[in-house]
Amino acid sequence: MKEEKAGETPQWKNDFPIDKEEATHVSRREFAKFLTLFSGALALGNGAIVLKSIAFPEKELEGQHFICEEGQVPMGEMLQFEIEGDKVIPYILIHLEDGEWRAFEQKCTHLACAVIYRKDLNLIECPCHKGYFDPKTGVVTQGPPPRPLPQLEVVIENGKVFVKAKSHKA
Amino acid sequence: MSNFRYSQKEAHPNKTNTLMTGITLLLILLVSIQIWLLYSALNNALTDNFNIALGTFIGSSVLFIAAAWLLRYLPEPRKPKIKE
Ligand code: FES
Description:
The complex is a heterodimer.
Chain A: H1 2-7, H2 11-15, H3 20-55, E1 65-69, E2 78-84, E3 88-95, E4 101-105, E5 116-118, E6 123-126, E7 131-133, E8 140-142, E9 151-157, E10 160-165
Antiparallel strand pairs in A: 1-10, 2-3, 3-4, 4-9, 5-6, 6-7, 7-8, 9-10
Chain B: H1 4-10, H2 13-45, H3 50-70
The complex binds FE2/S2 (inorganic) cluster.
FE2/S2 (inorganic) cluster binds next to loops of chain A.
Domain Rieske (chain A): 65-163
Keywords (chain A): 2Fe-2S, Disulfide bond, Iron, Iron-sulfur, Metal-binding
Pfam families (chain A): Rieske
């Protein structure tokens, strides 16, 4: 009698017919497949970036824009201005201590905080995470921003300050 | 006929375990490289660096194909032992 019982499969095994060993085996396979799926998603995401830069190339600013009179911004000061295109983009105009003019987009390249020119440091500062940019070139000198600030070219004509898209860098 | 699949099925579970671990590690490596590529694409291509966008996309796709190809070598699940 007893021997017969031992040979029989218990009821629960019929309801759930998966060996423990088998179960772990399958889950590792699934993990590998999931990793591959993830890998495909990453490749796809990268493709989306390519498509985006083909479909919506960054538009350059068109024409010259009048900003202010030369006398309005003393040396070492900055002026905030906006240019309306498809979207309104805030910029800063800086009159450097050596008399040169610079114009940059005001959005920090890290997380888009507004940057300001610090006369005492002679640096452009992003107050959010202490990112610093060179006020001559817009290059990141310190902190988390990954890219330089986009720059405009400043043109002075008859005491008036204009900006236009930067003629392409060499 | 003896091929990879055939010998794999005959192999001792310890060997399939090693293979499984190897494949998993390789996949993790591939995915990490892809994450790095995507990260640099996001950092550079958001301005106007089209070549980086394209380059990382091609690289990432190649890695994905490699990952998919690796799946061919996954050991098959064990068949439940057939009881007489
Ligand atoms: S947003 Fe400018 S440093 Fe983070």
